Amino acid sequence: MTPATAADAATRPGYLRDGALLTVEDLHCSFKTPSGRVSAVRGVSFDVLPGETLGLVGESGCGKTTTGRAILRLPAAQSGTVTFRGDDMSTYSRRQMLAARRRLQMIFQDPLSSFNPRRKVVDIVGEGLDIQGVRRAERRERISTALHQVGMSVELVGDRRAHEFSGGQCQRISIARALALGPELIVCDEPVASLDVSVQARVLNVLQDIRENNDLSLVFVSHDLAVVKVMSDRIAVMHRGRIVEIGDADAVYANPSHPYTRRLLDAVPVIAESERRVTLPAVSDDDEWRTVDRELVEVASGHFAAIGEVVSENVKASS
Ligand SMILES: Nc1ncnc2c1ncn2[C@@H]1O[C@H](COP(=O)(O)OP(=O)(O)OP(=O)(O)O)[C@@H](O)[C@H]1O
User: ABC transporter domain spans which residues (predicted)?
Assistant: First the structure.
């Protein structure tokens, strides 16, 4: 996106790039509370290229979730612009916003709070398709493909109710629901934070696979810099409603410029290259044993010793 005027060019942060799929500029969000207005997001700007993952990281309460939700107007920001494929969505009507949901989706931290656990899996995954008025045959096909992409079979799980599944499986169902519409970008809000340690890596793997296979862009929100680093091409570090540092994930990791980023990094464990690949057990009947990046397991858990024990036990049991 090119600035329209000289004044725009002067105020536009230099790190925003031409050709971005999503551009967020000078976003401000606040909430009315009994004790006054809380300013949650204070002038946040970033962009995401096609196929790129931007990690949005920072401590609890710094405004990550509010930023992620504002992209989809859940709720809308007080001011600022969100541009998708060159279109300023801040000016969209409800109808236009509904249509945009085909291209922009969101995955929430707790899957069970984002769908009715008593519904059948096919109906949960088909929710967005129903809202968009997708025809029956195409609906069936899309649900089947989306479930397949998260490692589930519509024949095996389609007619079962969501409450019959584990937390990790429910998160995979919610990923399938987002995928069914064929989005170009998904905002993932702490997608593994509510999951058991051993399941987190599997869900992160599913996200990486679908991202690669669908050439998807992700905005990946997490309080855990290590998880974000594994998932992201680029990282934006948020502190008290502002982005204090943004850049290439490896560069931010190797050479953080902000003291707050350095503080976050100090909490991240380091893993030797030789110990990187491990095999994880299946977590459900339709899963297979799978070799994953140990860093994913480790950073997802933050408790490497515990995971190491589980992994070696399972490796032993299988040999
Ligand atoms: N609906 C709301 N009403 C009032 N205040 C809110 C609301 N949502 C968020 N806030 C406040 O806005 C600030 C940013 O919250 P937000 O949830 O975006 O942060 P976060 O970085 O995602 O933290 P967490 O990971 O804990 O959710 C916090 O001070 C929070 O208390």
Answer: 22-265
Whether residue 222 has its Cβ less than 6 Å from ligand 1: no
Provide the domain count of the chain. Answer: 1
DSSP symbol at 195: S
Q: Is residue 157 assigned to a domain?
A: no
Evaluate whether residue 238 is within a structural domain.
yes
Q: Does 285 map to a domain?
A: no
Kindly report the pTM of this predicted structure.
Answer: 0.83
β pairing state of 217-222 and 53-57: parallel
How many helices (H) does the chain have, and how many strands (E)? 15, 12
Check: CB of residue 142 under 8 Å from CB of residue 180.
Answer: yes
Q: How far apart are CA 190 and CA 188, in angstroms?
A: 6
ipTM of predicted assembly, 2 dp: 0.96
Q: Which atom of ligand 1 is nearest to the CA of 190?
A: 25
Q: Which residues pair with 104 in a beta bridge?
A: 185
Calpha distance 112→304 (Å, rounded) = 28
Q: Take residue 80 and report the two structure tokens written for it.
A: 């600022």
72: CATH? 3.40.50.300
Neighbours of 291 (CB within 10 A): 9
Closest residue to atom 31 of ligand 1, CA basis:
61
Q: Kindly report the protein residue whose alpha carbon is nearest to atom 20 of ligand 1.
A: 61
pLDDT in tens, 169-201: 999 999 999 999 999 999 999 999 888 766 888
Compute the residue count for the chain. Answer: 319
191, 230 contact by CB (below 8 A): no
* N-term to C-term CA, the chain: 55
Range of the domain at 58: 15-103+183-268
At 84, list the tokens. Answer: 């998708």
What's 281's DSSP letter? -
**Residue 202 corresponds to which amino acid?**
R
